[in-house]
Backbone:
């Protein structure tokens, strides 16, 4: 069609203008047979069967389609017809003036024509391109033919200008031409130069074909379209090829309307027939079109495909219909392929209107029942003959819906308003004929919502509620599903196409918030990018996200409490559940009861000073910890129920954490959205804020060079000056010591005790002026007198002071201060080893009277003490220092019940550097209660030990016994070292310290040597006169008696078997033939032996052979003898056996 713009050039009332427009539309079809000869390219006599069809319009929208005029010239306004009403005042000068004004106002059209209506029959204008119409409109058809002839003359000149013009593809609506992407070569492609030539020729032929179609020369148009399609197809110019196929379909339709015979080239018939197989014409192709779409020999000239294969015939209407529909399939396919390849920018209006044409044809054919001449005339004349009729049941509704939906599935929102309205109006008509009332109403609403979207939003909300989607009540969505998601995605596309930016923001945020689990990452990013772009046009508001961002809140506080007026850190755990990046601004805490606090920025400034500039970036699918500094401004319970922030494009609002229902069974589905409502619970974070607390600061540590040099065990006193820097008093001040080794679970209880002992009993620090530190006032400076003890491997000692101001309880709040002291500790004297040596009643001490320990034993012996009740502790010391040392050992021995003071044993030795010495300390054997020995090893921290199931029971008994014997010894034993006074020139003279005796280690033999046996077996050898026999004078053939005294030192009675154990030391070693025994060697004691009771048993013997003999005894304790169970529990051996030589 030829677009002709009708404009009044003088005063023309609206009714008269409308009547004139209707008159012209009745004569819009102009036969070429009625036109005069034209010498130009578009001579109507060249194809007298042709028609020129006008499309009279009253609005100039050339600017909207300017970039398409070289691509599809029928979109250009070709003619401007100025309408003028005749009056007596209309003169030639006025007509010439109006024409000049018309040309200046509309310089772009091909022809500018003036038509004067209501002229007398005798009136004629001599000015070119001015045509007069009689009052009775009798010559209207003649004047239209004259104007058309004039237009064709100018059209020939216009078209000739394109013969040597390089045609380029259209850009987008802004006129920007898309830069073509380099295509990958294939086996079907020709060389670039040849391809370029075919593109140039194909585009020129396609443009000429459009020109011929406008001028009514259908034969020339069909030939040029055919050859253009051949060249464009061979060169893979898909955009121009698709447009050429659209033009060919129009040309074939007009040929069928005239009943003119025609014939398509063979290759074109094959190509069009292949359109039947393009099932996914509206889906983006993923690969190059199939070889069946390619030309087998692209070097062959077009003429070889255009050879006559018979006479021309009028095509049946069913063949015409099929040809047109297949052309539509192919054009849509190539439009989509051009989009996918990004080789061309496919204008949205072109592809959309192409689909609309074919959808409209499908509906009209179904309404008419078939494709025939009546339908063709209806379409050509623009008349509707099917009012009240609707599509049949056999109509392909699925494909029709797909086409209609795809019409809007482009950059629809970028189309001009008129184009959008025209498409909405056409779709409304199609949906009406398809009995799709809701879609028809939607299109009508969109048609009327260009200036306002209130009614459209109500319609969309009602539509959503049909699918249980409640925009204002998202909590009523029980389980989001894919059907709901797809519906919302369609609504977003609709809002985007119609320019409803506010709707896109509302529904976009809704689907992101409630359907993110089933949205793909690319979908999320695309939706949010568009929301950000549209949010500048509408107000988003605060209620756009749900509470998925906040994970948790953690307070970094000493003792789990905050202090009034002091800065504390809050860590906020935030996550981004989306696939796009988000910004967090104006972050703060939401508190209950409006608890007053001050929020600081990372640079310790008030939050109000930086809330506009401070921004946190959340990466996609990430979690971060944000640290904020707060200062509570009063005490009490600080309850936080969420955060306040502006996230992304949304305004500032509160975000909380929902408390999940952890019930074993999920609740039943709601029968309606308004029933079974439950209260939503949110998590709270509570922390106590205590009243203002003091703060200590170290003013001075009074040490020379801030450093100490000590020997192991040495003590040193010094002072530390401290200051309370706040106005709060200190009424609680203690020192604590921490050792990480106590957390080692692999240590045994006795090893843990040793560590605890060094920490709690041998503290490295000691406060000497505790009584002066009961209360420390605010802003007071005070002195702390300390004593430090040197310990090996300690390079820095820390005294930790815990202090606070307590109103109620000591556990209310504690603050600590660490006082570090740098020191170097050198080894002094170390305990290298130890042993316990038993003594017997026969031990001789006459030769060792010079030794202190032997002198002590001699004194004890003279006091009628049995030496067998004593033993010696052998201590091995090593001097690790560089000078001679004096070692002093002191042992306090408990005296008898009548003694006023305990007996003290003191001994000393001089020890040269790097030498060792063994020193002996006499101690009395210990009789510890069995219950004490079986007690658990205590903990100085009151720690509850776990029952040890891995260590054997016997080993556990040994560990307990050795611990308690060691503790008993260390109660009485101490040792110190001194720098020897013999080295008078030493700079270390006068230094002294303690020797660590905790390194004392027991073996089972040592325990047997030191303990007093619970069942005492004492053996005596008596002669025939019951006098104790001298063991050095035992003779043959004399009667002797072996007397055994058994004493029970337990607190319970015992029973068992007593055994004599004679041993002969000379070979043969058997005693049976050397000793006559009057009795049995093994027998029961007869009755239970009570506690502290003694029994005597005698056995007569006679030696009949000389030699060395030993006589011992063994008692087998049987605790279950009352039950008849003679199982042996313990065996008790005598401490001293009889040793004698028989002469």
Residues:
């Amino acid at each position: 069609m030829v677009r002709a713009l009708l404009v009044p050039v003088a005063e023309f009332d609206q009714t008269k203008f409308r009547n004139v427009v209707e008159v012209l539309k009745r004569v819009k079809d102009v036969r070429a047979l009625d036109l005069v000869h034209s010498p130009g390219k578009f001579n109507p006599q060249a194809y007298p069967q042709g028609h020129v069809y006008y499309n009279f319009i009253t609005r100039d929208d050339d600017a909207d389609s300017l970039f398409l005029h070289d691509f599809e010239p029928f979109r250009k306004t070709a003619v401007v017809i100025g309408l003028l009403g005749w009056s007596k005042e209309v003169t030639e000068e006025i007509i010439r003036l109006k024409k000049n004004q018309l040309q200046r106002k509309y310089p772009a059209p091909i022809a500018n024509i003036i038509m004067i209506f209501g002229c007398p029959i005798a009136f004629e204008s001599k000015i070119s391109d001015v045509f007069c119409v009689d009052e009775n409109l009798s010559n209207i058809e003649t004047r239209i033919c004259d104007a058309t002839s004039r237009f064709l003359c100018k059209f020939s000149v216009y078209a000739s200008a394109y013969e040597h013009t390089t045609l380029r593809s259209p850009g987008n609506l802004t006129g920007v031409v898309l830069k073509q992407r380099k295509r990958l070569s294939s086996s079907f492609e020709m060389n670039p130069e040849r391809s370029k030539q075919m593109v140039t020729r194909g585009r020129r032929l396609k443009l000429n074909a459009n020109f011929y179609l406008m001028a009514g020369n259908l034969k020339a148009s069909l030939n040029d379209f055919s050859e253009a399609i051949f060249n464009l197809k061979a060169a893979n110019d898909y955009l121009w090829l698709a447009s050429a196929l659209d033009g060919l379909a129009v040309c074939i339709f007009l040929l069928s309307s005239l009943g003119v015979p025609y014939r398509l080239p063979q290759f074109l018939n094959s190509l069009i027939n292949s359109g039947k197989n393009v099932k996914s014409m509206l889906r983006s192709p993923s690969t190059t079109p199939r070889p069946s779409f390619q030309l087998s020999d692209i070097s062959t000239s077009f003429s070889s495909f255009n050879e006559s294969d018979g006479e021309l015939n009028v095509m049946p209407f069913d063949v015409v219909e099929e040809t047109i529909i297949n052309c539509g399939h192919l054009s849509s396919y190539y439009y989509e392929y051009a989009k996918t390849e990004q080789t061309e920018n496919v204008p949205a209006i072109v592809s959309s209107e192409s689909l609309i044409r074919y959808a409209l044809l499908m509906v009209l054919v179904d309404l008419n029942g078939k494709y025939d001449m009546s339908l063709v005339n209806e379409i050509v004349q623009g008349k509707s003959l099917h009012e009240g009729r609707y599509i049949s049941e056999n109509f392909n509704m699925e494909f029709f819906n797909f086409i209609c939906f795809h019409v809007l599935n482009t950059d629809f929102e970028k189309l001009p308003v008129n184009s959008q309205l025209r498409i909405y109006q056409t779709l409304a008509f199609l949906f009406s004929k398809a009995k799709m009332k809701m879609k028809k109403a939607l299109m009508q609403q969109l048609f009327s919502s260009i200036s306002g979207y209130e009614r459209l939003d109500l319609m969309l909300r009602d539509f959503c509620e049909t699918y249980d989607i409640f925009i204002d009540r998202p909590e009523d969505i029980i389980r989001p599903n894919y059907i709901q998601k797809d519906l919302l995605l369609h609504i977003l596309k609709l809002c985007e196409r119609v320019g409803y930016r506010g709707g896109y923001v509302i529904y976009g945020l809704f689907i992101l918030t409630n359907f993110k689990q089933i949205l793909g990452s690319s979908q999320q990013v695309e939706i949010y990018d568009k929301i950000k772009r549209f949010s500048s046009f509408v107000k988003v508001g605060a209620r756009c996200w749900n509470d998925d961002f906040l994970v948790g809140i953690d307070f970094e506080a000493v003792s789990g409490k905050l202090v009034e007026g002091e800065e504390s850190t809050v860590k906020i755990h935030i996550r981004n559940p989306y696939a796009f990046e988000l910004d967090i601004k104006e972050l703060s805490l939401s508190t209950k009861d409006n608890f007053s606090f001050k929020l600081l920025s990372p640079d310790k400034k008030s939050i109000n000073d930086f809330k506009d500039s401070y921004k946190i970036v959340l990466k996609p699918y990430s979690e971060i910890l944000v640290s904020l500094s707060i200062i509570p401004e009063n005490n009490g319970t600080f309850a936080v129920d969420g955060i306040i922030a502006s996230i992304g494009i949304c305004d500032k609002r509160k975000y909380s954490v929902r408390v999940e229902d952890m019930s074993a069974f999920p609740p039943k589905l709601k029968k309606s959205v308004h029933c079974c409502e439950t209260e939503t619970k949110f998590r709270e974070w509570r922390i106590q804020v205590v009243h203002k607390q003091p703060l200590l600061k170290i003013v001075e540590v009074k040490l020379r060079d801030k450093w100490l040099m000590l020997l192991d065990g040495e003590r040193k006193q010094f002072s530390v000056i401290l200051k309370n820097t706040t106005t709060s008093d200190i009424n609680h001040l203690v020192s604590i010591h921490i050792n990480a080794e106590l957390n080692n679970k692999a240590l045994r209880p006795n090893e843990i005790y040793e560590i605890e002992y060094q920490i709690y009993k041998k503290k490295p620090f000691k406060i000497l002026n505790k009584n002066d530190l009961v209360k420390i006032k605010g802003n007071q400076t005070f002195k702390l007198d300390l004593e430090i003890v040197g310990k090996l491997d300690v390079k820095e000692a820390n005294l930790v002071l815990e202090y606070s101001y307590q109103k109620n309880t000591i556990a209310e709040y504690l603050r600590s201060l660490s006082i570090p002291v740098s020191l170097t500790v050198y080894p002094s004297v170390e305990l290298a080893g130890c042993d316990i040596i038993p003594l017997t009643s026969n031990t001789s001490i006459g030769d060792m009277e010079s030794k202190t320990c032997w002198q002590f034993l001699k004194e004890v012996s003279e006091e009628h003490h049995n030496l067998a009740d004593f033993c010696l502790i052998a201590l091995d010391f090593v001097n690790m220092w560089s000078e001679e040392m004096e070692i002093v050992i002191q042992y306090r021995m408990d005296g008898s019940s009548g003694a006023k003071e305990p007996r003290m044993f003191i001994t000393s030795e001089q020890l040269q550097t790097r030498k060792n010495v063994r020193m002996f300390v006499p101690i009395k054997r210990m009789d510890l209660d069995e219950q004490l020995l079986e007690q658990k090893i205590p903990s100085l921290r009151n720690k509850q030990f776990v029952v040890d199931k891995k260590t054997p029971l016997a080993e556990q008994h040994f560990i307990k016994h050795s611990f308690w014997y060691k503790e008993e010894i260390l109660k009485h034993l101490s040792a110190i070292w001194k720098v020897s006074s013999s080295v008078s020139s030493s700079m270390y003279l006068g230094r002294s310290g303690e020797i660590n005796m905790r390194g004392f280690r027991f073996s089972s033999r040592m325990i047997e040597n030191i303990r007093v046996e619970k069942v005492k077996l004492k053996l005596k050898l008596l002669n025939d006169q019951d006098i104790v026999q001298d063991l050095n004078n035992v003779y043959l053939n004399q009667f002797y008696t072996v007397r055994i005294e058994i004493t029970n030192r337990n607190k319970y009675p015992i029973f068992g078997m007593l055994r004599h154990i004679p041993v002969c030391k000379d070979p043969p070693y058997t005693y049976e033939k050397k000793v006559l025994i009057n009795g049995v060697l093994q027998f029961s004691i007869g009755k239970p032996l009570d506690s502290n009771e003694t029994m005597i048993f005698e056995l007569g013997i006679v030696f009949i052979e000389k030699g060395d003999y030993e006589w011992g005894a063994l008692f087998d304790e049987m605790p279950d003898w009352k039950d008849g169970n003679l199982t042996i529990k313990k065996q008790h051996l005598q401490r001293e056996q009889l040793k004698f030589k028989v002469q």
